[in-house]
Amino acid sequence: MSPAVAPTVSHHASNDYQSALKPIWCPGCGDFGVLTAVYRALATIGRAPHEIAFVSGIGCSSRIPGYTTAYGFNSVHGRALPIAQGIKLANPDLLVLVAGGDGDGFSIGGGHVPHAIRRNVDLTYIVMDNQIYGLTKGQLSPTSKRGLATVSSAYGSLEDPVNPLLYVLGYGAGFVAQGTPADMGGLVAIIEAGIRYRGFAFINIQSPCVTFGSPDAQLKQHKLGMKSLEKMGHDSTDRLRAMDLAQTYGTELYTGILYRDPAPRPTYDDQVRERHAQLRVAALPKDRILDRFKPE
Ligand code: SF4
């Protein structure tokens, strides 16, 4: 088993993970809060920055790896998950974080999410869900609510949004949580729990876009409307109840861990590691595959 989340006693502070690069997000953007929560969660976990790889796609939120001292890869639109899976398989000892926006994850990269889930690669996937394409100046995104007027839907959206929570639960994700920077303590806790979960962990963060986002999806509304799953006494091992709650995405803001598999499946990276170990002890085959293609 890889030491992705050890040690338990941290010798690192939040600012150990803070790079010299200053974020260029708009003042008040929810992504600032997400970044702070990531710093704090990493400090609690205690892995050294050089033992962490942080991969993102494209978008405002995908700038986040550059603001940390971890190895960062601001990659290709919608392709953060396959790249992160490759990194984890190449070096399973790394703690691998993946981040992006709702468009990156559920439109351009939507086809990659089920495969990361079914393989159960040990990654923590953080989606900063602001229901808008912010970087390109405010077009409809896959999680925009029906009726939202944007530069690409001047008369209001005619589409129903993707439900990210139900999407990942439906595909069998073993860890699913939701948070908001309006609840910093809760946000740090779910990021830490996601990192500690062995397997694919999905964290949907309602991270308001103050410049192009819907006026009724800002931190002020989050503070007024958020409902703590812990305070509600939600049983996070109950997948069907989690799916019930997830159906209210867009109308209710439940924060905390919706689902954590009490008996997680083996991770893909552990299985690969075991297979390698078996092959090392097995007698090397006399007939190597490439030898079959040598000219006579
Ligand atoms: Fe944040 Fe929106 Fe500004 Fe992008 S455009 S940095 S998402 S507030």
Describe the secondary-structure layout.
Elements: H1 30-45, E1 52-56, E2 71-74, H2 80-90, E3 95-101, H3 102-108, H4 113-119, E4 124-129, H5 164-170, E5 175-179, H6 184-196, E6 201-206, H7 219-225, E7 226-228, H8 229-232, H9 239-246, E8 253-260, H10 268-281
Q: Give the distinct bound molecules.
A: iron/sulfur cluster
In total, how many beta strands?
8
- CATH topology heading: Rossmann fold
List the secondary-structure elements in sequence, H or E: HEEHEHHEHEHEHEHHEH
Largest sheet: 8 strands, mixed
Radius of gyration: 20 Å
Give the rounded overall mean pLDDT: 94
CATH superfamily: Thiamin diphosphate (ThDP)-binding fold, Pyr/PP domains
Strand neighbour order, sheet with most strands: 2-1-3-4-6-5-8-7
- How large is the share of residues in beta strands? 5-15%
Oligomer: single chain
- How helix-rich are the residues, as a percent range? 25-40%
Which structural class fits the helix and strand makeup?
A: alpha/beta
**Unreliably modeled segments:** none
Number of helices: 10
Structure description:
- The chain has helices spanning 30-45, 80-90, 102-108, 113-119, 164-170, 184-196, 219-225, 229-232, 239-246, 268-281, and strands at residues 52-56, 71-74, 95-101, 124-129, 175-179, 201-206, 226-228, 253-260.
- With 296 residues, it is an alpha/beta fold.
- It has a single domain (3-293), classed as Thiamin diphosphate (ThDP)-binding fold, Pyr/PP domains (Rossmann fold), CATH 3.40.50.970.
- The chain has an eight-stranded mixed β-sheet with strand order 2-1-3-4-6-5-8-7, sandwiched between helices.
- α6 (184-196) links the parallel β5 and β6 (201-206).
- α1 (30-45) packs across α6 and α5 runs antiparallel to α9 (239-246).
- The radius of gyration is 20 Å and the shape is globular.
- The chain starts with 29 loop residues before the first helix and ends in a 15-residue tail after the last helix.
- The mean pLDDT is 94.
- It binds iron/sulfur cluster.
